[in-house]
Amino acid sequence: MFGFKKHKTPKAETRPEADESAAQNGQAATSDDASLVTRLAKTRRGFRDSLADLFLGKKKPDQETLEDLETALISADVGIDTTTEIIDHLQSSLSRKALDNPEALRLALIELLVEKLQAAEQPLQIPASDKPFVLLVVGINGAGKTTSIGKLAHNLQKQGRSVLLAAGDTFRAAAVEQLQEWGRRNDAPVIAQGTGADPASVIFDAVQSASAKNIDVVIADTAGRLHTQSNLMDELHKIKRVLGKLDENAPHETLLIMDGGFGQNALQQAQQFHDAIGLTGLAITKLDGTAKGGVLFAVADKLQLPIRFIGVGEGIEDLREFHAREFVEALLGKG
Ligand SMILES: Nc1nc2c(ncn2[C@@H]2O[C@H](COP(=O)(O)OP(=O)(O)OP(=O)(O)O)[C@@H](O)[C@H]2O)c(=O)[nH]1
Ligand SMILES: [Mg+2]
């Protein structure tokens, strides 16, 4: 999970071309749904392995089954409070004998999990009136900010929007080059001033440039930081303040990129970022690794923030819009 090499040149992506050629040969291209299942394979294995004994069991679900389920959900990173709510709910169904077989229990669990995530399913909206729409990307070091920006630019371009990138990470050596590489891959302009420049001024310039060029969306990268680094959190305040001078609604989205592999720690970090600067959305990355996936339920329950995207790989196509049922069914099978 933590073995990813950081800051390398983005990998050449082969999958889209493979899909295209399959389509040209008259074969069905991989659907997003099927590839989500594939991409979440490791996460699903972790989730299902711990639940498999329950669902394979021939005996009727009983109190002991629920206790096993409770352990399984907690070890899948769902978090104690959220797990307790789920178990309490199932407990009352069990006492009403609504769950008289393992399949009924699996289906009830799927519905409960979908329900828990439903409120977080709020895809990013980009109204035509907000032009340029300014998306500020924040998060701790190595969470996947810059990579997610590259993927997001690609997603937006596929929807027919023009995108400009702002190299607001002026702190880490090579951060600007990493963003510029994503700019090249997407054929999107990148506004940069180099390492050591004032991030607020870079992003301000980028928004002005996007206005002049009639570009739809500006995505601003920022340096990784911890909520405890108050000088760096102040820097984010400054960026927001300066952007507000160009457009009082900017940034229109403040998106926190969270590493799904951090489990419950990611939840705390997100809460602290939200308290410090006010977030409007989340993207949870690295769910193709051994991240257990349960953290999404805890995040949806505790933070009450939209989960806009999930990251399921390092390639340009690997940022997916978040949909509650699709995600749960990718983990637990169809409801
Ligand atoms: N497997 C996998 N790797 C990812 C995903 N998202 C990002 N990564 C990898 O995580 C590493 C760090 O990604 P970056 O985009 O550089 O992270 P960052 O948050 O910009 O890092 P800093 O700029 O240092 O704060 C890179 O190797 C990425 O390829 C994902 O969804 N899945
Ligand atoms: Mg970065």
Question: Topology of this protein?
Answer:
Blueprint: H1 15-24, H2 32-39, H3 41-56, H4 63-75, H5 80-95, H6 102-118, E1 133-138, H7 145-158, E2 163-166, H8 175-186, E3 190-191, H9 199-213, E4 217-220, H10 230-246, E5 253-259, H11 264-277, E6 281-285, H12 295-303, E7 307-311, E8 319-321, H13 324-332
Parallel strand pairs: 1-4, 1-5, 2-3, 2-4, 5-6, 6-7
Antiparallel strand pairs: 7-8
Helix pairs in contact: 2-13, 3-4, 4-5, 6-12, 6-13, 7-8, 9-10, 11-12
Guanosine-5'-triphosphate binds next to helix 7.
Mean pLDDT across all residues, rounded? 86
Task: Identify the overall geometry.
Answer: elongated
Bound molecules: guanosine-5'-triphosphate, magnesium ion
Beta strand count: 8
Helix content: 40-55%
Helix/strand/pairing class, anyone? alpha/beta
Query: How large a portion of the residues is in β-strands, by DSSP E?
Result: 5-15%
Low-pLDDT runs: 1-31
Alpha plus pi helix count: 13
Q: How far apart are the termini?
A: 29 Å
- For the largest beta sheet, what order do the strands appear in spatially? 3-2-4-1-5-6-7-8
Rg over alpha carbons: 21 Å
| SSE pattern, N- to C-terminal | HHHHHHEHEHEHEHEHEHEEH
Main sheet makeup: 8 strands, mixed
